[in-house]
Amino acid sequence: LDADNYETDPCLKEIRRAENYSWMDIVTIHKEKLPNYEEKIKTFYEEHLHLDDEIRYILEGSGYFDVRDKDDKWIRIAMEKGDMITLPAGIYHRFTLDENNYVKAMRLFVGEPVWTAYNRPADDFPARKQYIKFLADEA
Q: Which segments does the entry list as coiled coil (predicted)?
């Protein structure tokens, strides 16, 4: 994706249309830009899941999403400018900055945003059970 021209990028526009991403905002994670920076960074790094997909598009900077594989081992995904990721509802994950300590990201949602994170263990939620079933079906 063309992060320098995200406002007019036809690829991003098509993704938003196709996936019905009707809501978006932009967050900058940097100690001088994010209120309660230290607290937020700790929260982002706690292992958690969401009941909806988490969609992030990196506009500037870089960082890491860590996700659990089917064997419950961590996989680190490096994200940089121009990258987009969709973390499915029910997947345990966390986010951290890299040595640059800066990322500007677009957050996308289907409908109104839901910000609730459920720290592990959160295995009783239907979204988690559905995700586990998906993993089993894929195996």
A: none
pLDDT score at 139: 80
Burial class (CB in 10 A: 0-12, 13-18, 19+), 53: middle
Work out the mean pLDDT of the chain and round it to a whole number: 97
Domains, the chain: 10-138 (2.60.120.10)
CA torsion angle 23 29 35 40 (round to 10): 90
